[in-house]
Write a structure and sequence with these properties.
Elements (H helix, E strand, L loop, with lengths): L9 H18 L4 H11 L2 H11 L10 H29 L5 H8 L2 H10 L9 H12 L3 H7 L2 H21 L8 E2 L2 E2 L4 H4 L1 H13 L7 H21 L8 H16 L6 H9 L1 H18 L6 H34 L1
Antiparallel strand pairs: 1-2
Helix pairs in contact: 1-2, 1-3, 1-13, 1-14, 1-15, 2-12, 3-11, 3-13, 4-7, 9-11, 11-13, 12-13, 15-16
């Protein structure tokens, strides 16, 4: 059975390129109001990546393919393992004056383990929660009854709506009144069910029901601009910084629809970078920030240097992976 994710969407890969750069602006800001505004716009990126994953979790027959789900899950597990090894080595390197045991003690505690189990925050770098949350989204679909349930329109739309409403309430609306929803002492918007699942399910809804089907792709981008403006308005009036604004969620959803429907020609190199490198840029950019902070001559240049370093590291990773893959293929051919 041929899967939908075997088909390439240049518009989507172009937007992945934009989104991975926006992620950098979340954690590495330009100075002043411009930096705060870019950070708010950057909140579009993570919901967008989760929606893309949800969109492609069914095949062209609009059914769940269990073998495909297993492959996606193994791929995410490999990325998690790779990220863990990379950041463990990175921590040993930047803490070279300490022994490995001392470094482990600094980061691994009962609190960090509890935080990992409840809100899937990794021990080393918090930004890697995205990979764990994506893993949970795929694992949630492993039981056959869950796959059947999410193919039911009423169940899917209700689940998406409830998770999304709880996220918006807990991350934006209730804090305005000094209230919050907590689970075991943690804010509910940090828990996988509300932090990632609603966006994953929104992507699945977009695939199954094709909303705004009659809206031309360019008009979807115009509508997405409203989401960006709304994000900036929310930034201005928010008591606290939200992980994803209502405007950024709207923008991400419209980006997804535009990406899969646009027939426009995009720069080929940018499309390839979006397809191949965007996830590694996401993984590496936090390490790149610590390097950039030491070498950047200006706060205005720091985010740009982080982007350049992240893409170089991502490209090297892809190159090494290709070499290793070719080597194993050559060995296999010799054996056969």
């Amino acid at each position: 059975m041929k899967e939908i994710n075997k088909i390439r969407y240049d518009g989507l890969d172009f937007l992945k390129f934009i989104a991975c750069i926006l992620v950098v602006f979340i954690h590495c800001q330009f100075p002043g109001l411009f930096g705060e505004s870019m950070r708010a716009i950057g909140r579009t990126a993570v919901p967008f990546f989760l929606m893309v994953s949800g969109y492609f979790c069914v095949n062209r027959s609009l059914q769940f393919d269990f073998n495909s789900l297993k492959k996606k899950t193994i791929h995410v597990l490999n990325l998690i393992l790779f990220s863990f090894v990379f950041f463990a080595l990175y921590h040993l390197l930047i803490n070279y004056q300490k022994s490995p045991v001392e470094v482990a003690v600094d980061y691994i505690s009962s609190f960090s383990i509890q935080r990992f189990l409840i809100i899937n925050t990794p021990v080393f770098y918090k930004h890697l929660w995205f990979l764990l949350a994506l893993l949970y989204c795929y694992l949630l679909l492993f039981p056959p009854f869950m796959r059947r349930a999410f193919l039911n329109k009423r169940v899917l739309l209700t689940s998406t709506f409830i998770c999304l409403i709880i996220f918006v309430l807990s991350s934006e609306i209730l804090p305005l009144y000094g209230k919050e929803i907590t689970v075991f002492g943690y804010k509910s918007q940090h828990i996988f069910l509300f932090r990632a699942l609603p966006f994953f399910l929104m992507g699945l809804c977009a695939r199954l029901y094709q909303p705004l089907e009659k809206v031309a792709p360019p008009n979807l981008l115009i509508m997405a601009l409203f989401g960006i403006v709304l994000s900036l308005v929310e930034l201005h009036y928010q008591v606290q910084d939200s992980q994803a604004y209502m405007g950024s969620i709207l923008c991400a959803f419209l980006w997804l629809l535009y990406g899969v429907r646009s027939k426009k020609q995009f720069p080929k190199m940018v499309v390839i970078w979006g397809e191949k490198l965007s996830l590694y840029v996401y993984i590496y950019h936090i390490a790149a920030i610590s390097v950039s902070n030491k070498i950047s001559p200006s706060e205005w240049l720091t985010p740009i240097i982080v982007i350049i370093i992240s893409f170089i590291m991502a490209y090297i990773t892809l190159f090494v992976k290709g070499m290793i893959s070719n080597r194993f293929c050559a060995i296999s051919r010799k054996k056969s």
